[in-house]
Backbone:
């Protein structure tokens, strides 16, 4: 990908495949405690290796507090082979709809040039579609462990992404959508 170090990039990552909650336990506590499956741990490592191969190391990671998202983030960092960036656990990401997710992105530190949000569906998928409604590859489905990389839209005014507050629909476009 050879990204420009002066261009903001947003990475949306859906947590990797998780184990189901205990049978019959539909509580929030049980859902928050769901760990990754073996294949989920492997997928998280592959996501990190893909990010490393594409020179996409996040400066800041916004992560849901759910165990499966935290384990996905840790696997990604292992696959990246880098020291942990600034990690912000954000309860607002858990079960969030696009407006709440976008608010988390817009409140991110302006110093972060590459920002990663690790969250859940359907919110992640909906936000990706809202950010770039013309990105047909997103119609394939945002499977567990899928990631979408957004960058400023070519027609966006240069000052529009001087900070993350300017990250709004149609100001960014999908650069890459993958399931490593």
Residues:
């Amino acid at each position: 990908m050879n990204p420009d170090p002066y261009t903001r990039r947003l990475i949306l990552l859906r947590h990797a495949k998780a184990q189901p909650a205990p049978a019959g336990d539909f509580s929030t506590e049980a859902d928050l405690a769901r760990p990754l499956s073996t294949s989920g741990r492997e997928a998280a490592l592959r996501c990190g290796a893909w990010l490393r191969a594409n020179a996409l190391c996040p400066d800041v990671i916004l992560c849901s507090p759910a165990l499966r998202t935290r384990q996905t983030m840790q696997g990604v960092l292992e696959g990246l082979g880098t020291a942990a960036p600034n990690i912000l656990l954000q309860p607002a990401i858990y079960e969030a709809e696009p407006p709440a997710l976008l608010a988390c992105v817009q409140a991110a530190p302006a110093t972060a040039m590459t920002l990663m949000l690790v969250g859940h569906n359907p919110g992640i998928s909906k936000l990706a579609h809202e950010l770039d409604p013309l990105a047909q590859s997103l119609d394939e489905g945002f499977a567990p462990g899928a990631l979408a990389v957004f960058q400023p839209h070519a027609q966006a005014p240069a000052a529009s992404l001087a900070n993350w507050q300017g990250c709004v629909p149609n100001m960014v476009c999908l650069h890459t959508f993958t399931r490593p």
About this structure: The longest helix spans residues 38-53. Strands lie at 9-14, 60-63, 86-89, 114-119, 147-152, 172-178. Helices lie at 28-32, 38-53, 67-80, 98-106, 123-131. The chain has a mean pLDDT of 91.
